[in-house]
Each structure stands twice: as structure tokens, then as C-alpha cells.
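Thread: quick sanity check before group meeting

JM: Hey all, I'm pulling together slides for Thursday and realized we never actually wrote out the predicted structure for the chain we discussed last week. Dropping the sequence here so it's in one place. If anyone has concerns about the input, flag it before I start.
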Amino acid sequence: MLWDNDLQGLGGLMRHNGRFLGTFLGFAEEGYEAGPGRIGFVFSDGLRHWERTKDPILRPEEGDQ
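JM (edit): ok, ran it. Output follows.
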């Protein structure tokens, strides 16, 4: 998966227990919305530096699990 392809969809952002939490959208192939998308999760203490989970948190192949 091209996890660093800088293609991002409309993510969500919220504050919880003093940290900022967000979601973003990435795609498996290069190009505009190429292939099925996956949702990632990021977190930050101050909005300048972000950390993300190693793998997507939601994938289309997981269905309704």
C-alpha cells in the first residue's frame, strides 16, 4: 500500500484527553482514488507534529467486522 502517497480525503479531527486525534484516507495505488481506499489514524499533542498508526485501521476487505 502506498501509505505515503500524500493523497488524502476529508479526514476528521477531534480532541480527546488533551490530544488531537484524526483520520485520513489513503489508496493502494498511485493516481486519483485508484483502487480501494483505507482509513488511517493519526494523533498529536500540539498539531505541528503527527504520529500515525503503522497500518490502516479500516480496510475494505474487513467488511462489516
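AS: nice. Strands lie at 13-16, 19-27, 37-44, 51-52. The two ends are 21 Å apart (CA to CA).
JM: adding both to the slides.
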